[in-house]
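Fold sample X.
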Amino acid sequence: MSTQPDTLELVRASLPRRRARERRLKVIGVSAILFAFAMLATLILSLVSTGYTAFVQSHATLQVFVDPELVRESRLPRGKFDDVLTAAVAEHLPGVDMTDRASRKEVEKILSNGAQYDLRDMVVADPGLIGQTLRITVPLSDPFDQLNKGGIDRDTPEQNRRLNDSQVAMFDTLKAADVISTPINWGLLTNADSRFPELAGLRGALVGSAWALLVCFLISFPLGIGAAIYLEEFAPKNRWSGLIEVNINNLAAVPSVVFGLLALSVFIGWFGLPRSAPLVGGMTLALMTMPTIIIATRAALKAVPPSIREAALGLGASPQQVVFGHVLPLAMPGILTGTIIGLAQALGETAPLLLIGMNAFITSAPEGPMSAATALPTQIFIWADSPERGFASRTSAAILVLLGFLITMNAIAIFMRNKFERKW
């Protein structure tokens, strides 16, 4: 009689261990997912908690008398518009002695430096406003904006605060007079960059990124698809085509700063193209994006069943007709998905754009691909490096805007893949 245990007994004896391992594997998997979500939530919450204040801006609504003694039509656009605004603010501060130079300076610091230019533009556009009283809304300067949003602690000793007790009292008087409001800060998207935090916006960076992505798409999309079609459908399978494939896969993993150095040397050094131009930025991003598009396109072409090719060839179609009339249309959803993902990756690149100078201080949106510009990632870098406290919230807000664009582009890619994907 055999003393060896039968198979059923061995299986039964191993079941507890196998089930325990399965439970441990599930616990590890769920823990990893929860940890990833926790890190993502921490990132988003930290950005929102820091940057939500940048989506609103403190303003003062004033009755401004355009004094003909201070603003003369014959001298426009010159005029003492700052004095006109200071007088309007002083009307709500009866306890402040405006003949005292120090007190007057404190009142002048309440409004943003850009307020006088807003008033100037209004008067220049309509000189008939001279001598009239206008109701205008202008932004506060950054320290008073921070005070209104709670960014300045009133309990901090006066010598350690950006605003002294007199300035805080002035603000409280204006607040009690219902002069201060906090509307949505549309200027964050419509204004260009400025050295004053309350006036700084992302318009120049958004337009610069749009131009750079357009150039990137126009170069990388046709070249990437053409290279992928040739390698997948027409190139002979030999050592040279194998070497090219290996190098394309390696280029997809090359650090972005290397492409920036290449662009600095070739596009700017050899070709003499202007620094900070979206054209150079788009060409640099195209070099980075093409390997991704080639790999995604080849994968999409491989996913088309061979029977499609064989059926078309059997009906007398040429190889070119097979590829461009049958295979490519069926692979296009996967190609577009890979292209959008590649462009989303290019949108978030910073290092190559820094090397070609797209981090210059630009106070207006670029008019074309040859104009000096910044991009969203480089604008974030500029603001993060600024010593002004007001730029801290704008940095987080700009990151949220960038994340919004990236999430939108990836959502479009997922939608297109699910809607147009063919299954055989």
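Fold sample Y, listed below.
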Amino acid sequence: MSIRTIVLATSAVLVLMLPTTAAANGGVSGTITAKGLRSSGDLVVSLQAAGVTVTPPAKPVELDQKTMQFLPHVLPVVVGTTVQFLNSDPVAHNVFSPEGKYNLGTWPQGQTKDHTFTKAGVYTQLCRVHPEMEGYVVVLDTPYFAVTDKTGAFAIKDVPAGTYTLTVWSEKLKGAKQEVTVEDGKTQTVTLTLQR
């Protein structure tokens, strides 16, 4: 038997001995229609289940005040996340929330203030200097979430197999819930319509 034959045979045995890769996680995607609104964007879609753990990001997540708006208008984060509020406008801005009962004060362009969100819920972001400004921080107790685009499309990837309650939050419409089952390596498709 030649050395080449021995090497090839040994390689084949080693390949057979390698552990098989676990099946890839699944996902959920689809479209949420916001009936009566001009856009189906900025809807927060999340997957809730018992026993799901969340790990907040090590670095703060940024929410900007730019062109007299909170950007992004809707910011979903997990419990324990620190949000860094930046002022990119050439005028002073303030940040406060009636639900969170915090007021971060007022600061000039280029400066930031931080706030850590320790409880799940929806927190309206307002500016005392400019009452027309409004944004939302949606704090979730699940790492599986997405924000819809203007067409209502969303995709939540890398979700472990299991049964979840898909929950949709909207700034102006009634939310919705639906049970979904995620299978390894498959994407579950969901279509929902929100109404007033």
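Sample Y note: Residues 3-17 form the longest helix (15 residues).
Also: Confidence is low (pLDDT under 50) at residues 3-21.
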